[in-house]
Specification:
Elements: H1 3-13, H2 16-23, H3 30-42, H4 51-60, H5 64-79, H6 88-104, H7 108-122, H8 124-136, H9 138-156, E1 163-169, H10 172-182, E2 193-199, H11 206-220, E3 222-223, E4 229-230, E5 243-248, E6 254-261, H12 262-270, H13 272-278, H14 288-301, E7 314-318, E8 324-328, H15 333-340, H16 342-346, E9 348-353, E10 356-358, E11 370-374, H17 391-422, H18 429-438, H19 444-452, H20 458-473, H21 493-502, E12 504-507, E13 516-518, E14 530-534, E15 540-544, H22 550-556, E16 561-566, E17 574-583, H23 588-597, E18 603-612, E19 615-624, H24 627-638, E20 643-648
Parallel strand pairs: 2-6, 12-16, 13-15
Antiparallel strand pairs: 1-2, 3-5, 4-5, 5-6, 7-8, 9-10, 9-11, 14-15, 14-16, 17-19, 17-20, 18-19
Helix pairs in contact: 1-2, 1-5, 5-6, 6-7, 7-8, 8-10, 12-13, 15-17, 17-19, 17-20, 18-20
Amino acid sequence: MDEETRALLATMVGGEQECDEMFGNLQQLETGVEQLNNLLDSAPPSALGTENFSSLFVTTAADMRIILFMIANNLEAMRHYDTSQPNPTLVEQAAKLYAPLAHKLGLYQVKTELEDLSLKYSEHDVYYHIAHELNQKKRERDEYIARFVDTIEERLKQTSLKYHIKQRTKSIHSIWQKMQKQHVDVDGVYDLYALRIILDSPFEREHADCWQVFSIITDMYQSNPKRMRDWLSKPKSNGYESLHITVKGPEEKWVEVQIRTERMDDIAEHGLAAHWRYKGIKSSEGGTEAWMTNIRTALETGEKEPVTGLVEDEVFVFTPRGDLFRLPMGATLLDFAYAIHTQVGNHCTGGRIGSKHVNLKQKLQSGDHVEIHTSNNQSPKQDWLNIATTSRARSKIRQSLKEAEAGRITLAKELLERKMKNRKVEYSEPTLMHTIKRLGYKVVTDFYRAIAEEKQDVNQVLEAYLAQQRHERGEDEVETRSASEYVMQEETAQTSRNTNKDDVLVIDQNLHGVDFQLAKCCHPIFGDDVFGFVSATGGIKIHRTDCPNAQAMRQRAPYRFVKARWSSKHGNQYSITLHIVGQDDMGIVNNITSIISKEEKMLMRSINIDSNDGLFSGHLTVMLEDTDRLNGLIRKLKTIKGVKNVTRV
């Protein structure tokens, strides 16, 4: 280790003695340094700046001293960068990997220097343009800040606070970032001016004194609430504490003010080293392990919420294009395929890790470069649920299996309907439901599944259906009574009304001798208020009382109306259609079918969804027992995210 790197490490860990104690046997860390260098050499360039790669980098370094050494080594190399022998990789690593790691550790001076140096060598003209503009207006800027500070000090001197003020200009890299974001030149950067008010306060008065200064400044100048940062109430994970406000000073110029104490400023300058020094942890007292543990915690969490689970419980693998994926430890090739895309998972046949061909069960290791093989002939199998470990993969497999079963059931229904059509057998949903029950099936889907799996012969079903049809017609039991008995002679309106009071048709699927049908215009089901209407052919059509055609029928032929009511509930199923509208979403169909599939004794017959300009509209046809089930279904469908309205057709 050269002297410059050693000096940098001493700054990071709080002193030369601590540095010697922690890095005295650097040869013990050589293997870890070599592993990280190999990882950097093998990683695709596109992965370098990602959060996943940063996590992989930290995970690979079992000893956190290696991370500190790598940061210091990179900074030392950047300070002695030879422009005659460009090294773009070194510059990119400084900007995309080591500067963010230094930031997470609270090493802001190191982070700022790495960013400025990387900009200097990657965007030479930009760097020197900003530096030139800053130098040109340094005197003007210093004079402005001096006037601003004078007005604040006049107020601060009226208090008993002890303080000193530092002024600073944003780093060149930070200014460049704001120029890009705000699409302005250097002069247009929002808060180019900045200063720090550093208080000499006892520990127990730190927060109160900081908020007192905050109150004084915001009373004097208009503040921007969107730019207010409170790291007093909740310090950063690396120990950083400070109050940041941006106020509009004289000449309508924005100034950032940072308020902190001497202790907080020391932590801000020296990061975790100073933080743990103030907490009383010393390497000579056996605190090195605690120190390193908290360095790892800071690197894993940064300024974000902690990641779910420990990094040691995760693996990071690359795609052939260099994309990096984070998966739980124990994840298989199949999990990775579903992490890429659902269709990749559904058609996965195996893959390759490096030069080795592997199967779906292969467990992945951090740093693996994985290629997935697919085939259009492949589809999810039931035993895949024993291979997949991630919730995403298992959910997608279950969904695909359910959709495949739904497809087989649809084919079975089409087969049965085609057989009926070929034999010129009239299709009746209620008759088929009775037939299914007589064949011993309690659930309709079990019946169609048996046909799909060839466990139930279609011809046998057709014969049972015809027998049920004859039974319902009463051909062998009761002489059919013509529905014309319900037709009132067109004598007077009074006669019609009197007859309707006494003559009520009781609707029962086992009713014999009366030819009646449920009207297709309004699709009545058990629980609806209904009436009968005698057709010209002598049959009776059962309509809902709120049928859109009811008024026209009453005006045209009031004498054909027959009072009707349902008999007791017999578990029969009826076909109803719902109209659904809402905001378009890729998963809307799956969400709708998922609700129906969970309903007992409810079968979906069809669904048709059209979308346009972010909205969808569609029709859904299901088989259910009564209006109670219907109203319950409508309520559940309305709870789906994006669904705006559900109405019965």
